Amino acid sequence: MNELQVKNIRMVMVNTTHPGNIGAAARAIKNMALTELVLVDPKDFPAEKAVWRAAGAADILENARIVSTLDEAIADCGLVIGTSARERRIPWPLLTPRECGERTWVESATHPVAIVFGREDRGLTNEELQKCHFHVHIPANPEYSSLNISAALQVICYEIRTAALTEAAGKELHFDDWDMPPAKSDDLERYYEHLQETLVKLSFINQDNPRQTITRLRRMFNRIRLDQMELSILRGLLTSIQNYIFHSDNKIQELSDNHLKSKDK
Ligand code: SAH
Fold it and tell me: In this structure, how many other beta carbons lie within 10 angstroms of the beta carbon of residue 142?
């Protein structure tokens, strides 16, 4: 497997409680010839138990990057896929594990891809899931669908390896060719902040309760997979709207000042 491409594939574990699960995940990653593990604010790490469960994959643990937020873990990624053990209230574009493996493998040829795993007890929060372009669900027993986190990670890593082997065997895996790289996760986050700020200024949404509208707009833009050029056009558009509001606010102020002045005369 191409080493540079493999470096573009990142398993992200959020707030993991048991170090044994981190060790087992490291082993799963190395077994499938992958290398990158990022831990978001792990509860107990580094830990003996993690090294013990990693067996011969201690190098993956040693090289694991530890960060304090999910945003940091995915900042430079052009594709983010969130794993989910159950269906959510707002449906999101959903991949099967096979599609997840193929898309991850194909896209990792050109940009970093993150697969995000949740807490052992309650998975990923809605806010975290909303940072993802796609969700992936392993279709387990509907009456008992929640896998151990490292088992779920193993399934996903296996699918990525299967995609790599399929391609190596000469079968072309293909998604749309595009002339621009996809927008990076941190640029998208800044765009969503800018968008929310502008919509509040326009009184289109209420500052205290922007939730549903912003969630739906996030879902729409994540579904489109904005590229870097499209994102910069949208940022420019928001800046123009904000400038327009600023100038018309000043104009109104000027008119009312003049009106008061003329009344005083
Ligand atoms: N009670 C939690 C279960 C979390 S399981 C919940 O309902 O969300 C811990 C993590 O393992 C999940 O966040 C996810 O990353 C992964 N996982 C477990 N089962 C999965 C499944 N069927 N499909 C995809 N990911 C799964």
Answer: 7
Sign of CA dihedral 177, 190, 153, 147: negative
The DSSP-derived string for 143-158 is TS----HHHHHHHHHH
The distance of Cα 63 from the centroid of its chain, to the nearest Å, equals 21
Residues within a 6 A CB radius of ligand 1? 83-86, 117-118, 120, 122-124, 137-138, 140, 145-147, 149, 152
User: For the segment 181-238, what is each residue's pLDDT rounded down to a tens digit?
Assistant: 999 999 999 999 999 999 999 999 988 877 789 999 999 999 999 999 999 999 999 9
Query: Which residue owns the Cα nearest ligand 1 atom 2?
Result: 122
CATH architecture of structural domain 185-264: Orthogonal Bundle (1.10)
Distance from the CA of 148 to the center of ligand 1, in angstroms?
A: 7
| CATH code reported for the domain at 3-168 | 3.40.1280.10
The residue contributing the CA closest to ligand 1 atom 20 is 85
**In 3-state terms, what secondary structure has residue 264?**
helix
Instruction: Report phi then psi at 233, rounded to 5.
Output: -65, -45
The residues spanned by each domain of the chain are 3-168, 185-264
Asked if domains 3-168 and 185-264 share a fold, the reply is no
